[in-house]
Amino acid sequence: MSWGTDLWDQFENLDKHSQWGIDFLERYAKFVKERLEIEQTYAKQLRSLVKKYCPKRSKDDEPRFTSCLSFYSILNELNDYSGQREVVAEEMGHKVYGELMRYSQDLKAERKHHLQEGRKTQQYLDQCWKHMDNSKKKFERECKEAEKSQLIYERLDNDINATKSEVEKAKSQLYLRQHMAEESKNEYAAQLQNFNSEQWKHFNVAIPQIFKNLQDMDERRTVKLGEMYRSFAEVERRVIPIISKCLEGMVTAAKNVDEHRDSGIVVESFKSGFEPPGDFPFEDFSQNIQRTGSDGAIGTPKTEGGKADPKHAVGRTKNKLWLFGKKPKAPTLEDLSHLPPEQRRKKLQQRIDELNKELQKEMDQRDALNKMKDVYEKNPQMGDPGSLQPKISETICNMEKLRSEIHKNESWLAEVEGKHGSRSERRSSADVNHHAPHGRESPEGSYTDDHSQEHRSPPQPDPHEFDDEFDDDDPLPAIGHCKALYSFDGSNEGTLVMKENEVLYVIEEDKGDGWTRVRKQGGEEGYIPTSYVEITLEKNSKGAVTYI
């Protein structure tokens, strides 16, 4: 069948073309994958570069020059730029590469279905042709047998020697063969009609529909490629405004470089406060020469003792002439007197500020220990009050040392500033700040530095109050949270171990005794000193209240 061969060739061509289309789709998907990998690598290298040139530094090492600040601003903008490259890679991965791979799988399944339908249709038509051909051959064979029977009957009928029985037998055989030939003819006609009908359906309905489905599939693949090309460009286009802002930020940082401000910072940082040296005196080496009376009236004035002491005048300024020369090495002294006046003033002020912070911390710890001692005295089951006395004594000793250091450094600072009269004022103001720190008030019944208030007795709680509260099966709901400012060992019964910067849930507010009941994230509950934490209450409890 020539038509079968031609049809098979067409199927082979469509098979190859559809497979080529899918291969091309996957090739573009591979291109997109390599493109997004390049973006990921580029973004990673940019972030590494930014991290390399933005090292971690302490507050003292923070850059102050506009050129440094602008450079770090540029690094921040570059870091944001690298983030946009990561966004491009992520969008390409999800919206382009992932979509292409999913669509490729769908195309493969659809192509396989259409080709299988074509093969099934072709196989069914081949089967109908075989049935028709078999019935045709059978009809041909039966006709030949009928013709042969007719010849035998005619020969016996014309033979005078043939018996009547032989003639009758040949006649019946002829009728049988003619009947079989007629049945074969009818079967052949039916098979031929069926084949022609199926062949018409095959070539006019089934095959065109399959070809149309393959054509639609190929057109949809082409349309999908166009959409993916557009999505590929849109991913890049969407980040262009943000990238432009990053570049504008770099330009703005470049414009913020101020050479006058930078030089002013250098002058402010390194000015010494020294006064310019005076004029060098005239050194007269002719004083020992004998002069006449008239000449003696014009001699240079003599110093006391008859000799000039030029070395003293020169020596006073000799050590200050190292502006562009080698700076003389000076030992590091406690009062920082080896530094120039301005530098010494700054260092002393910085040291005083640090000592004041340490003193405030020690005072908070002392207040907390006194409150804890008060609770232990009222509730002996929670712990021994005497166990806290060594810590309280140690804290008071540390406070006295810090106050002594502050007083000593303030004296040196007053000496540098030349304001000895203001020393007592700063000292009195510092004492006021020490005893009444900003942002914190002593609750009722808490201990202060005034020993006359140490015997103020808050409402006496039930000795077994804490035991009853911890025996509840249902945990109390959290009314807020708190952050630990200091560590707390929680060595006594009913208290909770707490680390610095740890976040806890507040389940009961301070009732005036200086203790707050909290719960850890693991479910452990207990009391901690209120002055050791920064508390934030929820709105549904007592409003958005934040206190320390």
TrEMBL record:
Please note every region of biased composition (Acidic residues): 465-474
As recorded in UniProt, coiled-coil segments are 345-379
Against SMART domains, the record matches this protein to: FCH (SM00055), SH3 (SM00326)
Q: Kindly state a single biological-process term from the GO annotations of this entry.
A: endocytosis
Cellular location of this protein?
Cell membrane; Cytoplasm, Cell cortex; Cytoplasm, Cytoskeleton
A cellular component term, taken from the record's GO annotations:
cytoskeleton
Keyword annotations of the record: Cell membrane, Coiled coil, Cytoplasm, Cytoskeleton, Endocytosis, Lipid-binding, Membrane, SH3 domain
CDD domains per record:
HR1_CIP4_FNBP1L
Which InterPro entries is this protein grouped with? Answer: AH/BAR_dom_sf, F_BAR_dom, FCH_dom, HR1_CIP4_FNBP1L, HR1_rho-bd, HR1_TOCA, SH3-like_dom_sf, SH3_domain
| Residue ranges with Basic and acidic residues bias | 414-457
**PROSITE patterns attached to this UniProt entry:** F_BAR (PS51741), REM_1 (PS51860), SH3 (PS50002)
Q: Does the keyword Metal-binding apply?
A: no
Q: Does the keyword NAD apply?
A: no
This protein's source sits in the domain of life called Eukaryota
The record's section on PANTHER family has: FCH AND DOUBLE SH3 DOMAINS PROTEIN, FORMIN-BINDING PROTEIN 1-LIKE
Q: Which family does it belong to?
A: Belongs to the FNBP1 family.
What name does the UniProt record give this protein? Answer: Formin-binding protein 1-like
Native source organism of the sequence: Sinocyclocheilus rhinocerous
The gene behind this protein is fnbp1l
